Design the sequence.
C-alpha cells in the first residue's frame, strides 16, 4: 500500500516537474558513467588484484589487506595523527576563513577590503612543493621561524621539523595561511547576500554592532556554514598526501605519518592495488559515517544535505 | 529522446564494465615457450618498420626526447627502422608505467621492463612481455654470445626459472666503486694529518677539524641520509644498512640487527654530540655541503671524484680521497658500494629492454636491442661518432673536446652526453673509458681503483629477484621495519629517543632488537634467503 | 568625518567615533594578515631574480632582490614546451569551466527545488564524494571511451565538483520562494526562472564558483599526467612540475657524472621562476572576478 502510493506520487511529481527532471538527466548520466561505473574497483580491496589478470585471474583474499593494515605497529599512531590533525583542523583551520570574512565585512573602507582580499588570496596558488620549500627554509636551524621560537622558548635554535611536537602547529598554521583568504571568499559573498532590511530592523530595535553580528549576521550565514561543516566532517580520515609527504622526516614521523603516506610506502609504490583500495575503502566508510551523523543533526536545523 | 539516451548509456555502461573487467584476459604468449631458434627465418631488413619505445627520460637529457639522440638515429638508419620514443613526464615515471602497462595496446619495447611488480619474470607470466629467451640466439646473436660468455654475468641476467627474459645492458668487467670519502686537503695540511685510515684516526682528525680549525660541519652527510654514506663507516663494524650475507656461511643477515650496528650508532652519536656533525645535517643541501667544503667549514664529504674535481678544485691540493675506514689496521672490509654487471634494481633506469605482447615485429625489435652489443653499437653508444666526438688513438678511443664545447653542442657537458652518445642504456657499458669527465681528470681513475681494491664484496647480496608474493611481503612488513630502524637511528643519534631522554645504550639495544623480532624480521630473512638460494641455482637452459 | 571629492567612490560616513576606531583596528589587522600572506610570494618573486648563491646561503628575510638576474626566466622560456602549455591551459580552463558551470548550475538548481527524488539524488552525489573505485578503473574507463591522449579527457570526466555544486545549491535555496512563485504565476517556464530570475540574484556565488572552477582547472596536473601522451597537449602545471623536479638539487650525484657550478646554481633559480610563471595568470584574473562578488549588498526586492 505504501509503495503504491509512493510511486503514484512520484509519477505525478515527474509529470508536474518534467522540465526539472529532464534537465537533471544529463547530470545523472554523467555521474553514472564517470562515478558509478568505475565503482567496481572497490572490490579490488578483497583481492590480490593483478591488472594484467583482471578479477578473473586474481586471487580472492577476503579481509587480508584490512588485517595487515590494522596489524602494523604504526597503525596506532597513524590513526591518531590522521584524526587529531583533522580535529585540530576543524577547531582552528575551519573557522579561520569565516572569521576573516566577518572581519572584512565589518570594514567599511572598500579599498582596504579589496586589497586584503587580493593579498590573502595569493598563497593558494603557490604549489605545495614551493610552500613546503618555504616552510623548510623557515624552520631550518637558523631559519626565521626557528630563531623566533628559540627566543621565545629560550632553548638553542634547532630545526623545527626535526621535532615531532612542532609538527601539528606547523602543518595547521601553514594550512590557515595558505587557504584562509581564498576560502573566505565564499563566506564573504554569503555575507553580502544578507538582506540589509534585517539590519535596519535590528538597528531600529536598538541593537548595537555586536548584537547585530550575533542576531542578524551569523544566523544568516548559518546555512552555508553548516553545509561546509557537514562536508568538512566527511573528511575525518583524509589528510592530503602531498604535503605530509613533503614535510615528513624520520625525526617527526611520530606526528607526521598519516594514512596516506603510510599506504603509499607500503602499497602504492609497489603497485598493490588491493591494499591501496582496501585502506581507501576503510577511510571512506568511516568518513561517510561521520558525514551521515553530522548531517543527521544538521537536518534538525533544516540545513541538512538531504 | 529519452529512450535514445537510455540506450546509449546502457551501451556505454556495459561496454565499459565488460571491457574493463575482462580486458586483462589477454593470452599469455604460450607460443614463446618452446621455440627452436634454428628453424626461425633470418631477419629481413628490407622493410622499414616503426618501433615504439617507452622509456623514462633521464633528468638531464636535452630536447625532452630521445628521438633526437644522434646514436639512436644512427641505429635506426642502419637497421632500417623508425624509432618513436614515448616518455612519461619527469617525476611521474613509475605512476605512468603502472598505467601504461594495463593498456590494451602497449608500446613495442620498454626500456625499464624490470619495473613490473615481481620483475620481468612476472611480466612474462602475466602475458605482458614476450619471453624472448628462445629467440635470442637467432635475432640477438651478439647479445646472446657476449652474455653467455661469462657465467657470472649470465647469472645476474637470468630469471629464476633459467630463461633470459630481457635484453639487459651490462658491463663486461667489474666496475669501480665510484663514491667514497673525500677529505679537505687544505684542512688536513693545516692540522698536520694524513688521510685517516682507522675509525680512531677519523675520530682524531674530526676532533682536530672541529677544535683547531673551528669547523662547524666537519662531517658532511649526504642530504638524502645516512644510507648514502655508501656503507662507509658502518662496514667497519661488520654491519650495513640493509641485507648482507655472511661471506663464509652464506647466511643472510639484516645489517641493523648485527652487533656492530649499535656500536656504529654510538660512534655517530658521539660525533653529533661533539659537534662534528652539524645539527642542520637533516636539511643540508648537497650544494651547501660543497659550499661549506670550499669555505673550510667541512672536512669530509662522501661523493664521487668527478664532482670533487669539477666543483671543489685540484686533487691533492684542495681535496684528497681516503679509504673506507676500518676498525683496526689491516682489517679487510667486505662491504662497499658496488655496481653489479647487470643493474636490475628499480632505481636503475633504461637497463632492461623487454618486448611486449603488442609488438608485431619481434625480430626487428630484438635486432634493435641487439645493436648495443655489436662492435659497432658498443663504440657508438659509449663514445659517439668517430671523428667527431672521439678519435681512435693507438687502438683506444679518446674523446675530443666536441662534447665539452658549448658553442658546438649548445648545451653543457652533462646534457651533451645524452644527445651525442648514451650514458645509460641497453648496450655493453664501458664505464672506465666512456666517461669524458673521467678522461679529463685521469687522477680520478686512481682514486676509484683504490676504493675498488680496498674492499671485497663478499658480504653483499647479489641482485636477487623476488616473486610477486615475496615482494608484497617485503612491501608490507619490511617497510615497517626499515621505517622503524630509520626513525630509531635518527632519534638515537640526535639524543632524542622514545622517551625524549637519554637512554643507556644497552637498554636501547635490547628494546631495539626485541622490536625487530616482534616485527617479523626472521620471516623476512627467510624470504630473502630463499630468494638468494634461487639466485645461486640459476643456470641458463642450453 | 571623511568626505572625498564628490566624483569619487562614495565613502562610508562614520556616525560614531567608536565605529571609526573599530574600522581602523580591523583594517590594520586585515592588512597585516594580507602582508603576511604576501611575504612568501614576494620572497619567491625576489628569489627568482636574485643571485642564487646568495639566496641559498641567506637564512633570513629576503626583502629586496639581490644582484638582479633574469637568467632563470630566460632559461625557462627556452623550454619550448612552456609557451604551448600556457595556451593549452587556457584552452582547458575556458572549455572546462564552461562545461562545468552549465552542468553545475543545472544540477544545483534542480536540487534546490522540491523534487521527490532530490533526497536520493543528493545521497547519490554525496556518495561519490567518498567512494570511488580508484585510479585504475577510472583510467580504464577513460581508455575505453577512447579518450586517452585526447584533450577532452581533461574536460569531459570532470563536469561537476560536488562541493561546488552544494554551495551553489545552498545559494539557490536562499532565493525567497515568493520571488520564484510570483515568476511562475507570471507564466515563466522552469528554464526561464532559473536563468533570468534566480541566477542574477545569486550572481556573487556564481562568480565565486566560477572562480573555484577556474582555479581548479588551472592548477590541475594529475589528469593530464594520467591521460595525455603528446607533450604538445600538456597543460602548464605539468611542465612546471617537471621543471621543479628536474631542478630539485637534493637528488644530484646519484650517477657518476656532474654538472658545472653555473648550471647547478641555475637550477635553484629556475624553481623560483617557474613558480612565479605558474601563478601569474591567476593573479591577473582575480581583480576582474572580484568586482562581481563585491557588487553590492542584497537589498530586499519585495518592496515597492
Sequence:
Amino acid at each position: 500500500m505504501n509503495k503504491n502510493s509512493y510511486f503514484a506520487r512520484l509519477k505525478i511529481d515527474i509529470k508536474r516537474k518534467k522540465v526539472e527532471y529532464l534537465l537533471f538527466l544529463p547530470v545523472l548520466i554523467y555521474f553514472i558513467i564517470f562515478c558509478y561505473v568505475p565503482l567496481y574497483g572497490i572490490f579490488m580491496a578483497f583481492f590480490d588484484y593483478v591488472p594484467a589478470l583482471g578479477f578473473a585471474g586474481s586471487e580472492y583474499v577476503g579481509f587480508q589487506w584490512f588485517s595487515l593494515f590494522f596489524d602494523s605497529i604504526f597503525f596506532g599512531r597513524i590513526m591518531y595523527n590522521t584524526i587529531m590533525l583533522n580535529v585540530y583542523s576543524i577547531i582552528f583551520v575551519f573557522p579561520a576563513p569565516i572569521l576573516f570574512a566577518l572581519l572584512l565585512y565589518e570594514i567599511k573602507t572598500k579599498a582596504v577590503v579589496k586589497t586584503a582580499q587580493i593579498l590573502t588570496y595569493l598563497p593558494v596558488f603557490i604549489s605545495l612543493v614551493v610552500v613546503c620549500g618555504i616552510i623548510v627554509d623557515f624552520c631550518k636551524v637558523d631559519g626565521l621561524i626557528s630563531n623566533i621560537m628559540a627566543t621565545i622558548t629560550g632553548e638553542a635554535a634547532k630545526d623545527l621539523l626535526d621535532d615531532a611536537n612542532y609538527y601539528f602547529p606547523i602543518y595547521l598554521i601553514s594550512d590557515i595561511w595558505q587557504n584562509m583568504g581564498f576560502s573566505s571568499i565564499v563566506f564573504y559573498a554569503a555575507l553580502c547576500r544578507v538582506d540589509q532590511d534585517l539590519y535596519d530592523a535590528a538597528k531600529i530595535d536598538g541593537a548595537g554592532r555586536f548584537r547585530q553580528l550575533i542576531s542578524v549576521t551569523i544566523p544568516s550565514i548559518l546555512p552555508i556554514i553548516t553545509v561546509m561543516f557537514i562536508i568538512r566532517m566527511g573528511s575525518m580520515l583524509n589528510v592530503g598526501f602531498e604535503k605530509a609527504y613533503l614535510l615528513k622526516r624520520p625525526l617527526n614521523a611520530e606526528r607526521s605519518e598519516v594514512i596516506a603516506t603510510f599506504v603509499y610506502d607500503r602499497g602504492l609504490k609497489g603497485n598493490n592495488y588491493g591494499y591501496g583500495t582496501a585502506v581507501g575503502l576503510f577511510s571512506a566508510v568511516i568518513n561517510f559515517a561521520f558525514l551521515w551523523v553530522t548531517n543527521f543533526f544538521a537536518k534538525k536545523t533544516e540545513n541538512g544535505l538531504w | 529522446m529519452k529512450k535514445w539516451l537510455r540506450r546509449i548509456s546502457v551501451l556505454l555502461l556495459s561496454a565499459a564494465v565488460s571491457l574493463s573487467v575482462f580486458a586483462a584476459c589477454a593470452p599469455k604468449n604460450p607460443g614463446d615457450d618452446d621455440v627452436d631458434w634454428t628453424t626461425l627465418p633470418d631477419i629481413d631488413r628490407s622493410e622499414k618498420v616503426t618501433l615504439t619505445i617507452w622509456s623514462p627520460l633521464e633528468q638531464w637529457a636535452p630536447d625532452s626526447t630521445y628521438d633526437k639522440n644522434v646514436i639512436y638515429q644512427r641505429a635506426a638508419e642502419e637497421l632500417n627502422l623508425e624509432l618513436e620514443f614515448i616518455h612519461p613526464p619527469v617525476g611521474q615515471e613509475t605512476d605512468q608505467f603502472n598505467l601504461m602497462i594495463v593498456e590494451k595496446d602497449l608500446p613495442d619495447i620498454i626500456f625499464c621492463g624490470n619495473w613490473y611488480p615481481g620483475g620481468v619474470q612476472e611480466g612474462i607470466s602475466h602475458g605482458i612481455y614476450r619471453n624472448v629467451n628462445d629467440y635470442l640466439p637467432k635475432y640477438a646473436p651478439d647479445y646472446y654470445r657476449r652474455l653467455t660468455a661469462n657465467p657470472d654475468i649470465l647469472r645476474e641476467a637470468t630469471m629464476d626459472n633459467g630463461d633470459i627474459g630481457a635484453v639487459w645492458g651490462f658491463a663486461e668487467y667489474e666496475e669501480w666503486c665510484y663514491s667514497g670519502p673525500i677529505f679537505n686537503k687544505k684542512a688536513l695540511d693545516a692540522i698536520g694529518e694524513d688521510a685517516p685510515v682507522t675509525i680512531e684516526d677519523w675520530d682524531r682528525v674530526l676532533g682536530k677539524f672541529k677544535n683547531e680549525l673551528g669547523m662547524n660541519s666537519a662531517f658532511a652527510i649526504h642530504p638524502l641520509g645516512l644510507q648514502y654514506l655508501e656503507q662507509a663507516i658502518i662496514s667497519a663494524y661488520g654491519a650495513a644498512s640493509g641485507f648482507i650475507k655472511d661471506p663464509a656461511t652464506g647466511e643472510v643477515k639484516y645489517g641493523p640487527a648485527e652487533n656492530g650496528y649499535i656500536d656504529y650508532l654510538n660512534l655517530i652519536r658521539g660525533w653529533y654530540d661533539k659537534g662534528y656533525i652539524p645539527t642542520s645535517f637533516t636539511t643540508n643541501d648537497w650544494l651547501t655541503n660543497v659550499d661549506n667544503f670550499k669555505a673550510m667549514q667541512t672536512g669530509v664529504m662522501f661523493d664521487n671524484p668527478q664532482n670533487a674535481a669539477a666543483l671543489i678544485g685540484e686533487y691533492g691540493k684542495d681535496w684528497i680521497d681516503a679509504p673506507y675506514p676500518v676498525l683496526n689496521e689491516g682489517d679487510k672490509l667486505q662491504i662497499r658500494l658496488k655496481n653489479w654487471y647487470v643493474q636490475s634494481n628499480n632505481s636503475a633506469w633504461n637497463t632492461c629492454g623487454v618486448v611486449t605482447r603488442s609488438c608485431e615485429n619481434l625480430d626487428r625489435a630484438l635486432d634493435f636491442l641487439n645493436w648495443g652489443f655489436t662492435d659497432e653499437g658498443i663504440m657508438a653508444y659509449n663514445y659517439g661518432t668517430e671523428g667527431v666526438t672521439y678519435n681512435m688513438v693507438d687502438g683506444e678511443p679518446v674523446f675530443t673536446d666536441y662534447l665539452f664545447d658549448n658553442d658546438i653542442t649548445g648545451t653543457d657537458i652533462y646534457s651533451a652526453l645524452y644527445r651525442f652518445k648514451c650514458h645509460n642504456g641497453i648496450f655493453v657499458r664501458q664505464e672506465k673509458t666512456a666517461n669524458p669527465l673521467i678522461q679529463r681528470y685521469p687522477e680520478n681513475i686512481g682514486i676509484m681503483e683504490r676504493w675498488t681494491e680496498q674492499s671485497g664484496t663478499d658480504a653483499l647480496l647479489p641482485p636477487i629477484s623476488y616473486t610477486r608474493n615475496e615482494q608484497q611481503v617485503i612491501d608490507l612488513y619490511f617497510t615497517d621495519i626499515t621505517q622503524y630502524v630509520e626513525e630509531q637511528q635518527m632519534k638515537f643519534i640526535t639524543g632524542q629517543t622514545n622517551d625524549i631522554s637519554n637512554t643507556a645504550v644497552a637498554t636501547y639495544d635490547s628494546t631495539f632488537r626485541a622490536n625487530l623480532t616482534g616485527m617479523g624480521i626472521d620471516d623476512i630473512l627467510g624470504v630473502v634467503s630463499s630468494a638468494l638460494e634461487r639466485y645461486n641455482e640459476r643456470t641458463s637452459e642450453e | 568625518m571623511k568626505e572625498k571629492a564628490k566624483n569619487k567612490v562614495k565613502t562610508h560616513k562614520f556616525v560614531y567615533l567608536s565605529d571609526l576606531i573599530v574600522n581602523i583596528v580591523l583594517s590594520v589587522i586585515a592588512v597585516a594578515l594580507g602582508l603576511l600572506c604576501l611575504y612568501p610570494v614576494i620572497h619567491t618573486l625576489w628569489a627568482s631574480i636574485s643571485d642564487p648563491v646568495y639566496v641559498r646561503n641567506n637564512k633570513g628575510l629576503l626583502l629586496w632582490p639581490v644582484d638582479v638576474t633574469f637568467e632563470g626566466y630566460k632559461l625557462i622560456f627556452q623550454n619550448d614546451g612552456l609557451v604551448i602549455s600556457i595556451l593549452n591551459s587556457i584552452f582547458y580552463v575556458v572549455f572546462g569551466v564552461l562545461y562545468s558551470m552549465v552542468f553545475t548550475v543545472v544540477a544545483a538548481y534542480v536540487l534546490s527545488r522540491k523534487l521527490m527524488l532530490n533526497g536520493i539524488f543528493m545521497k547519490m552525489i554525496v556518495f561519490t564524494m567518498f567512494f570511488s573505485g580508484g585510479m585504475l578503473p577510472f583510467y580504464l574507463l577513460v581508455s575505453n571511451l577512447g579518450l586517452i591522449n585526447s584533450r577532452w579527457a581533461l574536460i569531459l570526466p570532470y563536469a561537476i565538483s560536488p562541493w561546488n555544486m552544494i554551495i551553489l545549491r545552498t545559494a539557490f535555496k536562499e532565493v525567497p520562494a515568493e520571488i520564484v512563485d510570483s515568476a511562475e504565476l507570471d507564466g515563466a517556464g522552469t528554464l526561464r526562472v532559473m536563468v533570468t530570475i534566480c541566477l542574477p540574484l545569486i550572481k556573487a556565488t556564481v562568480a565565486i564558483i566560477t572562480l573555484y572552477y577556474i582555479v581548479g582547472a588551472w592548477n590541475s596536473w594529475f589528469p593530464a599526467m594520467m591521460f595525455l601522451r603528446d607533450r604538445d597537449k600538456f597543460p602548464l602545471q605539468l611542465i612546471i612540475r617537471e621543471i621543479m623536479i628536474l631542478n630539485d638539487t637534493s637528488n644530484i650525484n646519484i650517477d657518476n657524472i656532474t654538472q658545472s657550478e653555473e648550471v647547478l646554481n641555475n637550477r635553484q633559480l629556475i624553481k623560483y621562476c617557474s613558480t612565479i610563471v605558474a601563478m601569474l595568470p591567476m593573479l591577473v584574473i582575480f581583480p576582474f572576478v572580484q568586482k562581481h562578488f563585491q557588487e553590492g549588498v542584497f537589498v530586499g526586492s519585495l518592496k515597492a
